[in-house]
TrEMBL record:
It holds the Pfam family DeoC. InterPro entries: Aldolase_TIM (IPR013785), DeoC (IPR011343), DeoC/FbaB/LacD_aldolase (IPR002915), DeoC_typeI (IPR028581). It catalyses: 2-deoxy-D-ribose 5-phosphate = D-glyceraldehyde 3-phosphate + acetaldehyde. This is Deoxyribose-phosphate aldolase. It comes from Lottiidibacillus patelloidae. Keywords: Cytoplasm, Lyase, Schiff base. Catalyzes a reversible aldol reaction between acetaldehyde and D-glyceraldehyde 3-phosphate to generate 2-deoxy-D-ribose 5-phosphate. Belongs to the DeoC/FbaB aldolase family. DeoC type 1 subfamily. Coiled coil: none annotated. It comes from the Bacteria.
Amino acid sequence: MSQISNGKPEAKVNQGSASTLKPSLNANVITGAQVGRMIDHTLLKPESTEEQIIKICEEAKEYSFATVCVNSYWVSTAAKQLAGSKVGITTVVGFPLGASSTFVKVAESRDAIADGATEIDMVMNIGAMKSGDYETVKKDIEGVVLACGDVPVKVIIETGYLTTEEKKKACMLSKMAGAAFVKTSTGFGPGCATPEDIKLMRETVGPDLGVKASACVRDLDTARKMIAAGATRIGASAGVAIVNGGKGEGY
């Protein structure tokens, strides 16, 4: 986690993100605790309070989640709560529409890293993707990747808006642009993460990139199906329920 120095969080470089658990892992025998180490414990609601952010940070430490995932305003709060722990901090950029300019996404990324973010989940330029402007999509991702340096970038391709061929193209563009992960959804768009999409994404990017399943993963059985399909990270607000074998609600 980030360390606090002179009252200002310093970003920790997080190198091992894409290989938290290998996609070849036998998902049928994976335990709730093992899944927990793959979870980005998520709270992205606009009405989230400081008390709620602190709570998910405490839960993340208790259950050894990979990261907490919060809006950029809350990154410095999470950094203070998680200082000295092994839990990382993910924040979202260009969220949830992906329609910000690259300049804005780069500035948002740099500011979040300065506050303590250890991973960046950026939303792809969905409109450019649907327009077939692949060069813009790639340059947008490259700009954020370059700005983030050693901090891993996950590209949210928002599968609910894309055709099968567009999903493949979005994954390849993300890989070419240097992303560490491809991710299914923001949770604010249509549809849910599905094993079929995860399998397609894994086949497209190969074994070296991370694949993050997010939206509607609310229980251990669903998480196991995503892992069996090739996911190496799970984005969920129901992390505690997943680890404990229950069923949660929300993102």
